[in-house]
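Title: Prediction job returns without error message
Component: structure pipeline
Severity: low
Priority: P3
Assignee: unassigned

Description:
Job completed but the reporter wants confirmation the result is attached to the right record. Sequence as submitted:
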Amino acid sequence: MKPKITGIHHIALKACGVADFEKTIEFYHGILGMPIARTWGTPENPAAMVDTGAGLLEIFANGTEYPEQGPLRHLAFEVEDTDVCIEAVRAAGYRITIEPKDIVIASEPPYPARIGFCIGPVGEEVEFFHVK
């Protein structure tokens, strides 16, 4: 019998220290409005999960270094309005790497979307993806 994968439960980010942890929580919860699902740990080593609506983003404060980008390219969030997300993170001072634009993925059938990218608080690349 083959295993059955039913979806992504969570993706984890490790912030290096409490200040970066708090900045990361502010980005995903405060700026982007993702609800906090649970928290645990201590004041010196907090952890939390925020609800993306289609899985959880787990955030730790116990990272020791930020590695160069490995094979995981970016986090892509399905959104109602790419432009609103980009403007919210821009207003909060985050670097926009790709301005909102319409694309069509050359698949069968073609896949139209509006996308935009930024760099998150601990160096992660974040995509806002609106299916058209």
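Comment from assignee: result matches the submitted record. The mean pLDDT is 92.
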